[in-house]
Amino acid sequence: MFPLTDSFNYAKGKNATAAQVMEHVFPLLTPERQKKILQVTKERCFDITVCLEGIYDRGNTSAVMRTGEGLGFANFHVIETFDKFKESNRVTQGADKWVEVKKWKSSAEAIKYFKDNKIRICVTSLEASKPIHEIDFTTPLALVLGNEKSGISKEMLEAADERVIIPMPGFVQSFNISVAGALSLYQIYLNRLQKLGRNADVTPEQIELLKAQYALNTLDSGVDILKAKLS
After folding, report:
1. At what angle do helices 58-70 and 177-196 cross, to 10 degrees?
2. Residue stretches of the chain with pLDDT short of 50
3. What DSSP designation does 155 have?
4. What backbone torsions phi and psi does residue 215 show, to the nearest 5 degrees?
């Protein structure tokens, strides 16, 4: 589900179009940054949603987000069921600037959103019957990763369209959430690459919106520049 629209707010009640951002802000970036934005935006994937349910340690959320962004996944949903989170010194290394994050206060809200938008729900579970490499990831799907202590909630487990397990031939029974996220996302990346020829799913129009958004994310003074040029 692509979240951006052709409307970039730069002042109260005032919005710029992607074309205006590209005209006034993008040329001010370094050639290296311009080239990087052009490369990255073409490889973005939004059909795959990474959903983090009730993660207690913010460091784990950051680690999964960093891995996902590095592989081209830019659509994240966070279900915040904890009143208090464990803070962490681990950071996303800027990954949070380049992904779209939607937050939910309950699993029920997220489930309804996925079902209403015909997004399959795929959960990782030790009781799963299918290894993750047997799942088709070429259509819209939400990969849900549960919290560090109890895993996926019963509510999410019952709503799941797919229950998968990461094969573990060793003695240990489970991976750390950040490791499970990394292994799962790389498997999804490979699956889409093999079956579709690419992981990306963005249209030319969506790429233009992403370029504008990333230009504003790069240049701190971008909003002020738009105010000066468009007011």
Report:
1. 20
2. 85-89, 91-92
3. H
4. -65, -45
Please give the full DSSP string across 2-24, using - where no structure is assigned.
Answer: ----S-EEEETTEEE-HHHHHHH
Beta strands in the chain (DSSP E): 8-11, 14-16, 48-53, 75-79, 100-104, 120-124, 130-131, 141-145, 162-165
Count of structural domains within the chain: 2
Q: Are residues 60 and 127 in the same domain?
A: yes
Could you tell me if residue 36 is inside a domain? no
CB 188 within 8 A of CB 137: yes
pLDDT for 82 equals 64
CB atoms under 10 Å from CB of 203, counted, come to 9
- Strand 100-104 with 75-79, pairing: parallel
User: Are 55 and 161 members of one domain?
Assistant: yes
Q: What is the pLDDT of residue 94?
A: 62
